[in-house]
């Protein structure tokens, strides 16, 4: 019986150890179920708020720069005002001079035509007077003119 008692004793010890292990496992499972994982979002919230403030500051800086650039572009002038006024004035004076020259040229043409006609008329009158005073010269002139 000694062996039987030893075997029984071993079985009881094993069962006791098994029960203890089962209890430990149950306790571990219970603790695992009770354990709730909590995330600490405070550092992330701080980073997100810093990022938002940085983004807002950058947006304000960019808008200020764009507004400043717009004002500069509105005030920018390619040429100085005095140069533009001088250029426009010179163009007006040049156009006036060209118009004046054209009008003078046209009136000179009329004056030249009138002077030419007066010269021809004076020449004709002079020749007529000369030929009336010297009829023989008129005959010589007619002979000469026929030869040509």
Automatic annotation (TrEMBL):
InterPro entries: DUF6730. It comes from the Bacteria. Keywords: Membrane, Transmembrane, Transmembrane helix. The chain crosses the membrane at residues 82-103. Pfam families: DUF6730. This is Uncharacterized protein.
């Amino acid at each position: 019986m000694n062996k039987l008692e030893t075997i029984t004793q071993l079985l009881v010890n094993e069962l006791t150890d098994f029960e203890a292990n089962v209890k430990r496992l149950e306790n571990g499972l219970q603790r695992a179920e009770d354990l709730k994982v909590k995330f600490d979002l405070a550092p992330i919230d701080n980073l997100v708020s810093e990022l938002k403030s940085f983004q807002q500051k950058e947006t304000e800086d960019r808008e200020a720069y764009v507004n400043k650039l717009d004002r500069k572009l509105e005030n920018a002038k390619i040429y100085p005002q005095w140069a533009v006024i001088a250029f426009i004035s010179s163009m007006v004076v040049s156009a006036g001079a060209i118009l004046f020259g054209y009008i003078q040229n046209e009136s000179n043409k009329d004056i030249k035509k009138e002077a030419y006609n007066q010269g021809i008329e004076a020449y004709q009158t002079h020749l007529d007077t000369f030929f009336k005073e010297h009829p023989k010269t008129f005959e010589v002139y007619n002979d000469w003119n026929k030869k040509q």
